[in-house]
Structures are given as structure tokens and as C-alpha cells.
Amino acid sequence: MRSGDPCAVVSGRHTLGVVTDTPAAYAVSDLLDILDLREVGTVHTGWAVASPSESPTAAVTADIATATATATAAVADLAVEVGAGSRVARVFAGPSQKQRYQRTFGGQLLAQAIIAAGRTVAADPAGAGRPLHSTHTTFLVSGADTDEVHYVVEPLSDGRSFSTRRVSALQHGTLLAIVTASFQEASPGLDHAEPMPAAPSAESLPNVAEALAGVPEPYAVVCILDGPIELRHVEGHLYAGARPDHVARQGVWLRSRRPMPDDPIIHAAFLAYASDYSILESVLRRHGTAWSDPRLRQASLDHAMWFHRPGRADEWVLHAGHSPSASGGRGLGLGRMYAADGTLLASIAQEGMLRLKG
Amino acid sequence: MAAAGVAAGALANVLANVLANVLAKMGSGMGAILSVPRDSLTLMRLPDSAADSVADLLDVLDLTCLGEARIVVEGAPGDEETDLGESTPIVFVGRSQKQAHGRVFGGQVLAQSLVAAARTVEPVDGVARPIHSLHAYFVRGGDDNHPIRFVVERVRDGASFSTRRVQAVQYGQTILSMGCSFQEPADGMDHQDPMPPAPDPDDIPTLAEALGEHLDPSAAQFFAARRPIELRHVEGNIYVKPGRQRAARQSVWLKARAELPDDPVIHAAVLAYASDYPMLEPVLRRHGVAWQDPRLRPASLDHAMWFHRAPKADDWVLYTMSSPSASGGRGLGVGRMFSADGALMASVAQEGMLRLKEG
Q1: Which of A138, A175, A187 sits opposite B329 (nearest CB)?
Q2: Is B245 touching A (CB cutoff 8 A)?
Q3: Does domain B8-356 fall into CATH 2.40.160.210?
Q4: Minimal Cα distance from B284: which residue of A?
Q5: Does A287 touch chain B (CB under 8 A)?
Q6: The pLDDT value given to residue B77
Q7: pTM of the full predicted structure?
Q8: Could you tell me which of A236, A229, A238, A232 has the C-alpha nearest to residue A201?
Q9: A6-42+87-187+196-356 is classed in which CATH architecture?
Q10: Domain layout of chain A by residue ranges
Q11: Which residues pair with B326 in a beta bridge?
Q12: How do residues B267-320 score in pLDDT, each as one tens digit?
């Protein structure tokens, strides 16, 4: 799953890197468009108990062989225990954004899955008024950026205060990602938040055009100017080269480049989308590398996000990132998103595969 | 309230009841082996010693393979997009540790699910693939009297990663839904947060000593000796009384109380099991709440864990935790597990429901 590099996002309206009019407005409406999912229908997922297959994983072959008699004798019991029978899942579909790498952007899948899950929760009488509070995602393989992605939403539970959904992102029957999302009825309770780290205001930092002055194209043009999210790095961006301070933390101000509708789940989806841009940059920064490093091979493996308080993605948000560890070709990035007034909006965690080849 | 005839010596029992409730609430090993009827403690499946309690935990993690189930997905007619055909997940079954409240301890299901997934990941060309991450949602409470089935879907076996999805089910309903990922060993960038300074675990009171402040020492000793995981709080425990300082961070030394088999899956599972005990304590500490607070209604909602370096759960582990936020009846805890020599073995994150009910 390609992620992180905002250069990867190329608006579908541009061809050959030529920018047409009002790219920023177009990029935001393009993202809003792909979040406007189409409901396709339903699928039925039925569980049954089977006799052992011909080629199970070797580690369990012996177990399965000895378990055959037991399993067969206990078919009825097991069928009940594992919930055999038919479950209905709603299916939604949405188009993909064009990418420089022709692979779907992880943030897009995440944002669309959030919308799909949210639609089924909002439609449930018990779920109405339950905002999203967390998502956990496993990224499996990249999809083709030319094709639609289907989202199969299975209800895991609708309890007294929580609703959970599991969303499978599919393209042509191949699983691209699994997103689990939890929604909760608004509730009072204990309240505290880690304070926002000191950072210069977004307005005091160079805008993207200034920051990229002197950066050779296609980066300057294709990379950032077109994206739906404006980013201003406190310690300098990593699009064109490494930075001298090899520290495992950074701050990035971000916001949607145009005002957005008030729907809270759209803002949550935008923040999730935006988090996938820069969450692994604290790893790159720590090791003195950058997105432009030709040796870099990178992919998102997972993503977790906790939405603490409602926030707006079209106002400045400080994404403070930190990497506690990298090892074995993987790096972990942790992040916190603050509104400009210091309100802690969300916490994020993502592990990425990060290799320097050659 | 107790009748007038309560003997003076019954104070220890009252405290023991409080403690058993506390530990049941946090799902700890001590609550796990006690049930608390109206006016006396009744012991249930009580291991005789630390070694027995670890053996009991290992027995719980020793799942039995039941065979394969079948998942049939019927898409809309002619819709190839969602036509997943059939898949054949492998089903395991395991038992539960007894809990005073009758509900399965979250750390136990987590550890069992990890083991179930790992048992379906084969070495590729002789190279084993250790677990590097898990993400789980606790969907429903489990019944500790009923076996748990673990349905493991082999989602993907790629060139270097294997992905599994596990559902822990009882009575046909999912109680935990987990995704986990395994990777063949690889080289690459390497860094880690340094281990924060902490006193030596041997200089921190044992649980028996710490509980001795509240309990009859022999009772404290009795409880403490029967837990699979030893926990020593650097800033003092918050079982009975809130912490002295209202800080949203704490450190705990922990380890299995007996040697574990030399199996990385078991060490990872025991770390996952142990990580669930104190993960939400930074939230409670920050708000001056002790586990025994009768208003407290805690529940784990999710759990994420990243295994950075080889796990070892039967030597001292420094578990440093903080809570970046609490709001809306929920609190987030994040933690890091260091080996005693300072290697960062794992990072952990968990959101819990933490409500204080009045009246």
C-alpha cells in the first residue's frame, strides 16, 4: 500500500503533469467525490463446518487429521459455536484517485472505508448519533488506481453504546485492506489531554509554493500543489531531500485546501486520509533520508486512529509525530493531531515497511 | 452492610473482598482465581504456587485444533467484485481462566488469539515468520465457563509477510476480532526510544509486601503467590488507594513468575496477556481513581501491539505507559515494553471505556 508521499496523489483532472485551473479546489472536490460512495447491494456470508481440505497448512495437518472424527461428530455443535448461517453485509463502491505510482493510496481506502462503515451505523436506529471513535486497519496489497474499490461492511456488534463494523476493501475479488471501525454514543466522563507541543503557527511557516521554491519539477508541481491537503512542515519537508537533524520527531500543520461540509464523519475521513501522508516521516527524518531518496522502498502495513474530540479538517491541525522504534525493515510512527487552539483531536499509530535498497 | 456481629478479625476479610473485587475488575490473575460470595472467600481452581499459575496459563494457551470451517460468500449474482468464493478457516478451541465476575479476561483472549494465528503460519523455505503486530477489538464479554473457538482465516501469505484474521467466538457470536501480521526476519533502519530511568525491580516492594499494607500479610502472600504475572509498580499500585501524584504516566516491572518454554510465540502471547493488566492505569492515576473505586466501570475496547524485537516474558520487563487523552467516557493508554537491558521489545496501545457511575 503506497502511502506517505503526497507526491503520489495526482488529481485525475491533470494529464502529463500539466496543471489546469484551480487545482486546490478541484482536489478537495475530487476527494469529496470519491467519498460519495454508491451503494451496490448486499452479500451473504455463510459459515459452515467443513471436512478438512486436501492441503491445509502443514503445521496443522496432523491436528486436522486427528480432529476429523471429532469435528465430524461435533458438526452441529461447532456450527452453532462459530455462528454458522448467513450474515448480510452491505456493499458500497467508490472510484480511486489517480496516483503517480498507479497504486491506490492507503489514505483513500481508509477514508472510503470510514464513510462506508459510517453509512451503515447512521442508518441503524440504534447507531444514529454515534460518532466514530476509532479505526484499526490492515493493509494487504495495493489496488489499481484506475478501478473502483468495493467495500463490504459486516456488522460486528450493535450494543447499548457501541457499534462496530468490519470493512473489507476489495477490487476484482482481491482483498486490499481490512478496516475495523467503532462508533460510540456521546458520553461524559474523565477528561484530560496531553498539551500541544510548542510549534510556530501555521501562518508563520512558508506556504507550499514558497517551501518548494527551487525544488525541481515534477515534485514542485505534481506533488503538493495538486493535493486536497495543504501541508506545512515545522522542521522542513522531506520531498526533495534529507534534513540534517536526525531526530525521530516532527510537526506538520495540515488542512483541507478548501472549506468542507459540516458532516463530522467527512472531517474524520479527511483527517485519516491526511494522517497517512506524514505519519512515517519521523522514521525517515531519524535516519537522514527523504521521500526523494531513490533507494527508498516504502509501504504502509497498518494504521490505527483514535478520535478523541470532534475537529475540522478545513482548519489548521498540527500533526505531531514521533517514532519510538524501527527494526527488521519496519518503522513505527505515532502521531497526535491538535486543533490550532490546542485541543487534542486524535491519536494515530502506523507501522510501515521501510527499506533502503542498493 | 455487615451485621453488628462482625468480628474484629473480619477486617482482613472485608479488605480481601474489596481486593478480590478490584482485581476482578481489572481482570487480573488474582481476581481470576477467586470468587466472592456474600461474606466469605471461596477459592476456585486455585493454583498452588507461582509455578502452577504459570502452568495454568500455559495450559490455557495450549489450544486444540478442531479442523476447518468453511466460509461461503455469496455476492450479488454476476458481481465478480465481491465474489470471494469459499475460504476454509482453521478452528481452534481453548478454555478460560476462572474470573470472579465470570467474564473472560481480555488479555487471555488476546493471547489465545495470537497463539491460534501463529499456529497457522508456516516457515517459508525453512524461515520462520514471527509476529510483528496485532490489532484487536473486544466486541463482547466472554463467558469464562464456556470454551472459546478461534476461527483463523489465512488472509494472505506474501513474499515476506503473512496476515491472519482471528475471530474468537462463543455461542455463535464474536467476542474478539483480531488482525495480525507476521514477517520473515529482515534488516533495515534501526533505532529505538531509550529506556527511561527506573529503580531496579528488586528495590521495589513485591505485590505481597505492597498488599500487606492493606491485608493480613499471610493473605497478601497467599494471593500474590498465585498469579502467573508478577507486577511491581514503580510509582506504587493503585488497587486500593489512588496514586500519590495525579500524573498520566507510570512504569511497571513485570515478568512471568516461572520459566516459560523457549517458544517465541508463547513469549509474545504472555507479553500480550500481561500488557492488558495495567494499560489503563495511567488514566486512573491521572484522575485520582483507584481500581477499588465502586463507581468505576472499566472495559477494554481495543488493543494494538507491535513487536519490535524478540520477546522475552520470563525476565524482567519494564512497561512504561502514558495516557495522551481521555474524553467521552473513554481513555487511551500507550505503552512501551523494554527488556531489563534496555531493548525496546514492544509498543502497545489500548482504548478503554472508563466511566465513573454515581450512586
Answers
A1: A187
A2: no
A3: yes
A4: A190
A5: yes
A6: 64
A7: 0.89
A8: A232
A9: Beta Barrel (2.40)
A10: 6-42+87-187+196-356
A11: A192, B331
A12: 999 999 999 999 999 999 999 999 888 899 889 999 999 999 999 999 999 999
